[in-house]
Amino acid sequence: QVHLMESGGGLVQAGGSLTLSCTASGNIFSINTMAWYRQTPGNARKMIGLVNYNGEATYGDGMERDRILLSRDNRKKTLFLQMVRLKPEDTAIYYCAAAIVVQTTYEEDDYWGQGTQVTISS
User: Fold this and answer.
1) What's the mean per-residue pLDDT of the chain?
2) Are 69 and 17 in contact (CB under 8 A)?
3) From CA 26, how far away is CA 103, in angstroms rounded?
4) In a 3-state reduction of DSSP, which class is residue 118?
5) I need a labelling partner for 66 at 20 to 30 A (CA). Which of 82, 84, 88, 97 fits?
6) Which residues pair with residue 26 across a beta bridge?
7) CB 104, CB 1: distance < 8 Å
8) pLDDT reported for residue 70
9) What does the angle CA 60 – CA 29 – CA 106 come to, to the nearest 5 degrees?
10) Rounded distance, CA 5 to CA 23, Å?
């Protein structure tokens, strides 16, 4: 089995900063692309960005590059999302996703975390 666990969410004042982490565990052979998404009530999940195995990040449409930074630590099987100058509109559930090859079948599949709530107060 493979699990993705997000952490670091919570209540933050507008203008503050936050770092979310997503750690993969389980019967993992390798992790390819890792990504962050966020979702607000009544809306579809929107991709914040993704990071390939080499650490190269690609950001989603409309993401403010000067406020968001994606990175990963392959040794720790962890993806990070750093956000600064937070705004109330950043309030959402943040989800991690990853394309993971499992040891048992050596097949790649997509996995999702349960999500972590981020609330920005004005």
Assistant:
1) 97
2) no
3) 9
4) strand
5) 97
6) 2
7) no
8) 98
9) 95
10) 5
List the structure tokens of 6: 């997000």
Tell me how far apart the alpha carbons of residues 122 and 120 are, in angstroms, rounded to a whole number.
7
pLDDT at 32: 97
DSSP strand E in 2-115: where?
Answer: 2-7, 10-13, 18-26, 28-39, 46-51, 57-59, 68-73, 78-83, 92-102, 108-112
90 in Cβ contact with 11 (< 8 Å):
no
Per the listing, tokens 């990040």 go with 57
What is the CB neighbour count within 10 angstroms for residue 115?
A: 18
User: How far apart, in whole angstroms, are the C-alpha atoms of residue 62 and residue 24?
Assistant: 27
**Which residue, 34, 4, 26, is CA-closest to 113?**
4
CA distance 92 to 41: 8
pLDDT tens sequence across 74-94: 999 999 999 999 999 999 999
CB 26 within 8 A of CB 1: yes
